[in-house]
Amino acid sequence: MLSACRRLRARQTLASARYASTSTKEKFRVLVLGAGSGGLTVANQIYNRFKAAGKPLNAGDVVVLDAADYHYYQPGWTLVGAGLGPKTDFRRPLASLFPPHIMHIAENVKSFYPESSSVTTTSGRTISYDSLVVAAGLKTNWDGIAGLPQALADSSSGVSSIYSYDTCDKVWHDVDALRSGNAIFTQPAGVIKCAGAPQKIMWMAWDRYQRSGRGNNIKIDFMTGMPSMFSVKKYSDALNALRIERGISAEFQHNLISIDAASRKATFKKADGSTVDRDFTLLHVAPPMGPLDFIKGSPVADPAGWVEIDQATLRHVKPEFGNIFALGDCSSLPTSKTIAAITSQAPVLTENLFSVMDTGRVSSAKYDGYTSCPLLTGYGELMLAEFKYELVPKESFSNYLGDQTKRRRLFYHFKKDLFPWAYWNRMVDGKWFGPSGPFRPKFV
Questions:
Q1: pLDDT 10s digits, 257-272
Q2: In what order do the strands lie in the sheet with 392-393?
Q3: Which of 79, 346, 372, 435 has CB atoms 3.0–4.6 Å from 386's, for a disulfide?
Q4: Do 308 and 300 touch, CB atoms closer than 8 A?
């Protein structure tokens, strides 16, 4: 605790010195936008990479912009919704996570000016950089479903979501309180973060009802805007077989568009454009998501609104923006948006950014699209989906344990115990590298 306090005071002293020495314009060697999983990880890895090369950066050369008060371990919200821990276990004050040599400016970005290597903040400050890393995440569109914000705010609505710190504990309250009726779990069409999460909480609810003798009194339905249970056929087939075995109904290409909490009705839009109403007693909602407003339409974005980067090097595709990199949910990378993906993206981005700043060229480091979805399927069991670009499985344990469509208790404890510990104690400090664990990958 004492060392953490000293680190926080040192960071505050550094920030105060920086603010005191400038007026409205500042320049940094590396500017990172966003202090989420990607931003904190890569900021630390970049600083450590220069130090390892014998070319250490000065304290304050790497700066992270983010106005948030707290940092969240979002995969933990599924555990909260399953009754496996309080939500406070998965939140830290953001300022406490910065080491003294990484500067934090508590502001957000409003506009990009890549032609002058600068950004402006929401307060009107201009900040310049030698290299920029965009790790700003994505936008959760709660208003994209009519009636959803009001239903979430109503403690008696039966509507909840694990996709927010404010509502993830309501999920467990509603799941545990249900004694009979219709429980519907939804997933939207399109891109969302951790696309397996909408069914993880469904499986946990199913198991809870079986273990507590309520299984015969509660009908569970999975209503998804997607065409299958999962994007990777191998895991989708296994999950669909499990769904049928457990007696869970499913409707595919059914996208939730509105909720009438007073009458407990949910309206879904089908692929042919028609709609269908479903009665619910409990409704778990995964909201639609998309790119952040300040990125959409900016010079760094692709037509869909994501930061347009090379899928191997994570460097911007436009040569004139060659000092811009991105990773995580805000990027155009054609892979699943998960923390696991970031663990493999960050060392590749770090290596290439270091090489560009040091030699003017990218290195040999290439990202292959690796991502992972630890699919909780019940208490004490988990299916560990791992794959890369083109939805090709890339399993870390199959050579030792066999096919990873088999649900295992070991994988369950990875999700419940190991991954949260590794996140708070290694990843946010830049010392966790996904399948490589604590060992930084070597690039030839």
A1: 999 999 999 999 999 9
A2: 371-378, 381-388, 392-393
A3: 372
A4: yes
Q: Which two tokens stand for residue 20?
A: 């005191």
How many Cα atoms sit within 13 Å of 293 on the Cβ side?
5
286-305 pLDDT tens trace: 999 999 999 999 999 999 99
Number of residues that make up the chain = 444
DSSP per residue over 358-387, as a string? HHSS--S------EEEEEEEETTEEEEEEE
Q: Which tens digit of pLDDT belongs to each residue from 19-61?
A: 333 334 599 999 999 999 999 999 999 999 999 999 999 999 9
Task: Read off the DSSP letter of residue 415.
Answer: I
* Cβ-contact 287, 188 below 8 angstroms: yes
The one-letter code for the residue type at 427 is M
CA distance linking residue 104 with residue 373, whole number of Å: 31
- CA-nearest of 37, 225, 35, 202 to 144 is 225
- Distance from chain centroid for Cα 193: 5
User: Contact at 8 Å (CB) between 338 and 161?
Assistant: no
d(CA 156, CA 137) in angstroms, rounded, equals: 31
Residue numbers annotated as active site? 194, 373
